[in-house]
Amino acid sequence: MKIILKKKKEKSYSTGKGLILFLIPTVVYLLIFHYLPMSGLVIAFEDYNSYQGIFGSPLAKNYGFANFINFFNMPNFWLIIKNTLVISVYSIVVNTILPIILALFINEIRNKHFKKTVQTISYAPYFVSTVVCVGMIFAFSNYEHGIFNTIAKFFGGKPSNMLESDTWFSTIYVVSGLWQGLGWWAIIYVGALANANMELHEAAVLDGANRLQRIWHINLPTIIPMAIIMFILSVGNILSVGFEKVFLMQTSGNLGASEILSTYTYRVSLMSRIPQYSYATAIGLFNSVVSMVMLIAVNKIAKKVGDTSLW
Fold first, then answer.
1. Beta carbons of 309 and 299 less than 8 angstroms apart
2. Are residues 170 and 258 located together in one domain of the fold?
3. pTM score over 0.70
4. What is the pLDDT of residues 282-293, one digit of tens each?
């Protein structure tokens, strides 16, 4: 008996060593690319000078908070915050609800070949690059030959240059993002539905429940915990709207709705003739702190309300 237990311990120990070896590359990656760069956040509190370096530059005015004060006093501060929140909240609502609906729909398909076809068609756009997607948006919304304006003319409407308007920017951004990611996000919920209790379905059928009632009372509660987790993660990135797509979609006519925190940070740092690295770092730190606070707050609320949380 002792020999058997000893062998089991040795086997579990050797297995644990193998798993640790697999973790080492990930840990090294996180240390080099995520934790070591955090030392550069100190320039948010400095009047950074490239000649003096990160740790040699003088402290900024107002006890190091001058860059933050300048950002809060900026004339466009509330406009940028509003644009960021509008796009982010719009995306969170749409990208949380519709993938759940699609997953429930796919789960109800009984023909395996048709089910796989729907899944493939729905998540194929996810592999289209952001640059190609934005190029398609510009082509479809072209004032003279775009498909949107062609349809509008066919029904007697007037053509309009959608990407030169503040009105349409957030909708185009969210809808195009939904087209790209809807099927991919739905995969998570389809996987969660595989854990649905089939005995409950059988009992519901015996009790006379129809398909919609079984979806509402059995399938939906099965994926709600996963939906809450995804929602919490989304709220944690509420101010971190994707930079690449917004920047590529920006035109002189839609800056009133498309200028967000990430694009503004890029403009005052890498695109500026006199890069303001300290100012840009302060904006990035503000973004990170707000996101962390939101993540912790929403996680606590979710834990108290539904006993589902990240930790």
1. yes
2. yes
3. yes
4. 999 999 899 899
